[in-house]
Amino acid sequence: MKISIDLKSGDFAASPKKDIIIGIDLGTTNSLVAYIQDEQPITIKSQNGKNSLTPSVLHFTQDGQIIVGDEAKNYLISNPDRTIFSVKRLMGKSYEDVSKLKSSIGYEIIDEDKDTLVKIKVDDKFYNPVQLSAEILKSLKLDAEFHLNAQISKAVITVPAYFNDAQRQATRDAGKLAGLDVLRIVNEPTAASLAYGIGLDKNAQFNIAVFDLGGGTFDISILHLEDGIFEVLATHGDTFLGGDDIDRAIIDYWTQMNGITNDELIQDIELNQMLRLAAEEAKKTVGRLEIFSTKIRSLELQLDDKQFETLIDPIVTRTITSCQQAIQDSGLAKKEIDKVILVGGSTRIPLIKKRVSEFFEQQADDSMNPDEVVALGAAIQADILAGNRKDILLLDVTPLSLGIETVGGLMDAIIPRNSKVPHGAGRQYTTSVDGQKNLKVSVYQGERDLVQHNRKLGEFILKDIPPMAAGLPKIEVHFMLDADGILTVRAKELRSGVSTSVEIKSTYGISEEEMALMLIDSIKNASQDVERRAYLEAINEAQNVVLASDKFVIQNANILTQEETIEIIRLNSNLKTTITTGSKDDIENAMKALNDYATPLAHMALDQNIGKALKEVSVFENEIGSS
Ligand code: ADP
Ligand code: MG
Is residue 212 annotated as a catalytic residue, yes or no? Predict the structure, then answer.
């Protein structure tokens, strides 16, 4: 063992400081950094802020400097074109993915190239989300270095459970750019569980619900812990639901009460700013006071508990609906959930805690600071990686269903959403046209019944299928999704062995906004989709009937009378017309008319054909016999 002596004092020198690994919660609204001190995780206060929360906001000053945090937040309303917020929403996204966001932000997003990552323009300079996130991380790193009086080079960073590969990679890159070696990307709900001490005992088995309502996003994750492994059983949420919506609801209420129009609010930046600050203050205090009141200019603004709860009721209800969905997806019963954890600043609102507890039929735990838990858990994960605790693994799930387009533009899901990865699954298909040589396989991701509403991931063609009658080829389409979220699709015609496969990076560029919207969409449009699906199925069936009737008339020309042939052709062409112009009922009626008329004829034809076939056999036998 080596002992060092401080030559100046003659004392034994303190043992050289161990490498400190920090834990970072890189949030949409606020970011935090934490580390382990005396075996306990603690958050670090920002150098110039009042507390440990650093608003995830950047401001570009006129002289080209970048400021981060509380100071930058002051420019949000007065200087929207130079003040960037919600960078997290842009991580790992192409312009296409975020174009929907454009209307809600004051800064400029550039669409030079639809397939590459988005860029943000300030003055005549371009920045990508990775660079901007790196600025926030740099600021946190500096805070930690200042506080610890040590150089920091290693970190664990958290991301939402629904973040895909591209988003995780972008987060990792931002860390690198900030001079941090990112040892691990950890799911936020996992970090929150660790902060509550769940997962530190290797023998424990737990089901955990993590309810996270932040500034602009909401998610609920159901985790299962076993053998020191956290598995995300299900995750659901809304990437456009959070504290900002609560502030807006209060502002709307006040402006309505005082007859202030939206235009006036847009014109009057100062009033807008003051109302926002007052609304945020009101929501934080109203639960604790009888009534909140303040004065802005000549306006007397008030908010009481009852009114507040009425205002936020729709918001709370939306989060509970997501919980319902997540529980359903997880395959667990509510009573199997061992613990419910509240995360995110907005869960401080008493009504939210009450409603979440009611839903899960148990008291939701908020004994730890809800806006610090994720960072604290990240610090614990960092400690585990530093070798101070035992290791913990993570499994993942695929957030959206993966499938292919079938006849009529219908989505046929092969790997359903929330399947654990790696995951392999296959299904058999056939052709719809005689002698079909090529089959296009189009791969989609999403929950809607029609592929046009889902996201196309790619397509390829299975070529050189030997000519066969429609319905005869057996085409197996097989999906393999590996642990990194990379999808390989293989199509094989089993009779001939012709096969093609293609690798599709399933998750590249998909936005969580889009993902959330797709999920919401699928719920909203469920009944409409069912109708549409029934309509398309009727068309498919009718087309088959048309083809079959055409064939029937040709094949049985010598059996059918001229009258019968004409009637079948008439009913068939009537059906053809309704396919293009009629409703589902029209199509079904036309199909029924044709079927009713043709079925007895088909039976008759069948009898005659069988008779004829039997006769042919006997003739054949006779011939043998006679020879
Ligand atoms: P994110 O994870 O999105 O970065 P946070 O977890 O930091 O966000 O939550 C920020 C939100 O929490 C803001 O909308 C803020 O107004 C809200 N918030 C913070 N404290 C309270 C409180 N006491 N009551 C209600 N809302 C609060
Ligand atoms: Mg958060």
Answer: yes
Q: Of the listed 73, 88, 93, 339, which one is catalytic?
A: 88
Residue type, 32: L
Structural domains in the chain, sorted by start? 5-242+313-385 (3.30.420.40), 396-512 (2.60.34.10), 525-626 (1.20.1270.10)
Q: Yes or no: say if 488 and 454 are a contact pair by the CB < 8 Å rule.
A: no
- Per-residue exposure over 184-193, b if at least 16 CB sit within 10 Å of its own CB, e if not: bbbbbbbbbb
Ligand nearest to the CA of 249: 1
Half-sphere exposure of 339 (CA within 13 A, CB side): 23
**pLDDT tens digits for 312-348?**
999 999 999 999 999 999 999 999 999 999 999 999 9
Token output for 525: 């449009």
Per-residue pLDDT tens digits for 516-566: 666 666 666 666 777 777 888 888 888 888 888 888 888 888 888 999 999
pTM of structure: 0.64
Pocket test for ligand 1, best of 28, 53, 371 (most atoms within 8 A of CB): 371
Two tokens, residue 486 = 């990379």
Is the bond preceding 41 in cis, omega lying within 30 degrees of 0?
A: no
Q: CA 437, 443, 447 angle in degrees (round to 5)?
A: 135
Radius of gyration, CA atoms only, the chain: 32
Other CB atoms within a 10 A radius of the CB of residue 154 amount to: 16
Residue 318 alpha carbon to ligand 1 centre in Å:
17
Angstrom distance (rounded) from CA 202 to CA 229: 9
Give the Å distances, CA to CA, from 151 to 132, 145, 422, 446: 22, 6, 39, 45
Reported as type and span, the H/E element at residue 258 is none
Ligand 1 neighbourhood includes 532 CB (under 6 angstroms): no
Would residue 88 show up in a list of annotated catalytic residues for this protein?
yes
Pick the residue whose CA is nearest to atom 11 on ligand 1: 215
Cross-strand bridge partners of residue 294: 301
Nearest CA to ligand 1 atom 19: 345
pLDDT on residue 365 = 97
| Cα-based distances in Å from 460 to 449, 490, 501 | 21, 10, 8
Nearest to 522 by CA among 399, 384, 360: 399
Mutate to test the pocket of ligand 1, among 24, 28, 30, 212 (most ligand atoms within 8 A of CB): 30
The minimum-distance atom of ligand 1 relative to the CA of 53 is 7
Cα–Cα distances in angstroms (integers) from residue 365 to residues 237, 333, 380, 477, in the given order: 19, 19, 19, 46
Is the model's pLDDT at 394 over the cut of 50?
no
